[in-house]
Amino acid sequence: MSPHHFRPVSRRRLLQFLAASPLFAHGALAEGSRPSDPVDWAPRDLDKLIADPKQALDVFDFEPVMKQNVPPAHFGYMATGVDDEATLRANREGFRKFALRPRRLVDVSKVDMSAEILGAKYDSPIVIAPTGSNRAFHPDAEVAVAKAAKAGNHLQILSTVATTSIEDAIAARGAPVWFQLYTTQRWEVAEGLVKRAVTAGAPAIVVTLDVRTPAKWETFVRLRRTDTRDCGSCHGLNDYLSRKPNFAGIDLGGVSSTVVTNLTWDMIKRLRDTIKVKLVLKGIVAFEDAKLAADAGIDAIVVSNHGGRRWCQRDHRRVAGNRRSGGRPHADPG
Ligand SMILES: Cc1cc2nc3c(=O)[nH]c(=O)nc-3n(C[C@H](O)[C@H](O)[C@H](O)COP(=O)(O)O)c2cc1C
Chain-wide mean pLDDT for the chain? Predict the structure, then answer.
């Protein structure tokens, strides 16, 4: 309707309606802002941090607390994604596309969220993913995580590069913990790690397939540049692995990092033949690889792009389309 179709009586009614509106009374429209969004009414105020975990309304309430309490380089290591944060943004957009389809008139007086994961029962399907170097964030490191996992009866997956050993994590959890494996260029190191984890009681080995070569973690690098501490006082040259407790007693044979270029299906098959516990692959994002994993006798896969820390095709449907049209399939550069 163009303005000259607006009869005076309609205009008067509209103005009366606006004058009576709470929005108008609070000046929101008068200030020319867009129509209200509930989040605008209660913005996340970064200078008013939660004082207790119980106050958190969602996990992102913890982030500014961490920013305040942890050195910039360590915060950057936690917060970073890859390449202009493109994958991280795509992940978050992707989550928004999930919708729930609630069924009504169901008795919910007793809700059972328990889940069986590879033969063990947990109170919920929420799993604690492996994260390296937890002591960079808190002196209690992965032991504190294990205690939290115990309190909520969650499955915990301990990282190869954890700052707590698999034995100490299992002791603190009071139950088996899965072990995440980063291979190195030497088979013997992987073999040593998994044998140690299995002896400690890990019922599953999770081999991480992504983040195996350096990635452009821009946020990490930018924040590290602002860190005025002497990183060398803790991080020596070439001691990355020898400082991690899970490598203690394992002959590194000269390898000093988890960067690998030789991880292929042959290595996975060799691992499958070496261990009797469950074998899981983490970082699968292409359906072709999921099929190969099933063929190789893998017990489960974790569909993951490392929380946006590895570049990943945004729209997996396009991968299938490319394949049909003879184009390149998944083009992960790293
Ligand atoms: C600080 C940090 C450290 C991580 N360290 C590891 C690790 O050592 N091993 C691993 O497999 N994944 C590691 N991850 C990835 C997580 O296990 C997990 O995949 C990610 O946070 C969640 O994203 P996803 O849903 O894409 O899996 C790390 C993630 C973060 C944020």
Answer: 87
Give the residue with greater pLDDT, 168 vs 29: 168
Q: Is the CB of 178 under 6 A from ligand 1?
A: no
Coarse DSSP helix, strand, coil percentages of the chain, rounded to the nearest 5 percent = 40, 10, 50
How high is the pLDDT of residue 331?
28
Which of 95, 131, 161 is the pocket-test mutation for ligand 1 (most atoms within 8 Å of CB)? 131
**Measured from the CA of 208, which atom of ligand 1 is nearest?**
11
Distance (angstroms) between ligand 1 centre and the Cα of 159 equals 9
Q: Whose CA is nearest to atom 5 of ligand 1?
A: 131
- Residue 204 φ then ψ, to 5°: -150, 145
Q: Answer whether residue 315 shows pLDDT above 80.
A: no
Instruction: Give the position of tokens 């291979």.
Output: 183
**pLDDT of residue 317 exceeding 90:** no
Q: In this structure, which CATH number among 3.40.630.30, 3.20.20.70, 2.40.50.140, 3.90.199.10 belongs to the domain 84-97+115-215+223-324?
A: 3.20.20.70
Q: Is 306 a catalytic residue?
A: yes
List all residues 6 or more positions away from 76 whose beta carbon is below 8 Å from its beta carbon: 217, 219, 220, 221, 222, 223, 224
Per-domain boundaries in the chain: 9-41, 84-97+115-215+223-324
CA distance 136 to 243: 13
